[in-house]
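User: structure tokens for UPF0173 metal-dependent hydrolase MM239_18580, please.
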Amino acid sequence: MIDITFYGHSAFMVNIEGKSVLFDPFISPNPLASEIKVEAIKTDYVLISHGHEDHVADAAQIAKQSNAMLVSNFEVATWFSEQGVENFHPMNHGGSKVFDFGKVKYVNAIHSSTLPDGTPGGNPGGFVISHQKGCFYYAGDTALTYDMKLIGEEFDIDFAFMPIGDNFTMGIDDAIKAADFVGTKKIIGMHFDTFPYIEIDLEAAKKTAAKAGKELILLNIGESITI
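Assistant: Done. Predicted tokens:
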């Protein structure tokens, strides 16, 4: 069992084996997350899927105040080192690294990636996290891709964080196919409703998922669950 807290958009804190892992912290610029105090967040790791502002906005501050290890692709990790983040680990597609909470594999995503100052952010990705009690997939921002089938062949995925907001990423129909590809029935939705472009009918999305035999978990900002 692991504990998960939603900080809005695609930002989640996951507690694994006594360590905290924060994904894609976009909190302070998000008016929907105004009650979340960034200065109070402490974590052991910050994992960044790609360089867009709505995934990296608070990463440097949180990494510095926590002395956390920031993990991303080579370009993004290097960029953060130039922003004063001293504790960082670069990865690239297909590579794995064992940390003290589990094993991380950086996997393909179909999207774009430019850092807030216009610096190229390399190719976007997602993460597969294997730990003593299970395995999950954080898709990042992505389209549906057949590469996800390889994840299903290699790993036994318990659940997956997947974008469902459409327009810039997968919508719910493609997220359901992605869940089939990676071999899970449990989807934690992300990247929806933050901006007008990605506002969706949440009840309709839940019904679509249920009809396909999937559980779509949509957390409120600040809400925590245990899986």
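User: Anything notable?

Assistant: The mean pLDDT is 98.
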